[in-house]
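#help-structures
NK: newbie question, is this the right format to request a structure? protein is Cysteine dioxygenase
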Amino acid sequence: MSNGNLRRFGEPTDVADAATANENLTEEGARDPPWDDIRHLLHLYHLHLRTTVVLAVSLGFTASPPKLPLIPRAMSVRTISKTATVGGKNIDIGVASKFDQLVVALKKALGPSSGLTSDDVDVNFLTELMREYDSVDDGWRAYAFGDASRGYTRNLVDDGNGKSNLLVLVWSPGKGSPIHDHGNAHCLMKILKGSLTETRFAFPEGSNERPMEMISEKTMTENSVAYMADELGLHRVMNKGSDFAVSLHLYTPPNVAKKGCFIFDQKTGKRSHVPGCAYFSTYGRLLKE
């Protein structure tokens, strides 16, 4: 991977930087938190360690990026909540950022079952969880690693106890995915930054080569959510913009990561198998190539 293609935020250089940053916080209780919240502050510190090197997908800076405080303003004590109301239901979470609340909520919703195909999982509830999360919250940036030399990158956020996987995909400008299936899995996709164009196709019929039939095409903008499964056809996702775009994907079960998927030639309908799709990063850390 070329370092010139990876865009990152800065990070504090020493403890003094962190102390100065914390003194600038204005939220009540941020300087002298109650002892009952010490374990939460330690968790915040851990979260921030994952956020110090991330893709600068929205600032659009060309000079040196700004430094982040050790405990960012968005993650002060006042944002900590032990419960969250999402999708009309109260969920006990006890984590700091809204993005982490979403991750835990999705995991809990899928916990007692094997995935979206199980009777005890409410697909509409999962969709509502993703829809109610506002991507203005920057928790997802800790996982948004991009590489301009690739069409897109797959960044693992959570493995859902083996029952699903939650990914942040970073799409390079003017690039996208091939036409592909989903390995008999279900996918929920939310746009976190920018816009993406989804084109759906019918599965090719017979063995004769012919152009694939397009079913629909739509452009999804920030915070919109879509559902996709093989029973709805095949699709291709493109970033037609001039800047990076970012999306959040929930797959269950995680068949594509384990077994791969099929990609299709739009002109002929011919398919070819792609082995298990690799991750560009896992849990906020770049993987060595």
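mod (FA): yep, format's fine, and the tokens are attached above. Residues 7-81, 84-91 have pLDDT under 50 and may be disordered.
NK: thank you!
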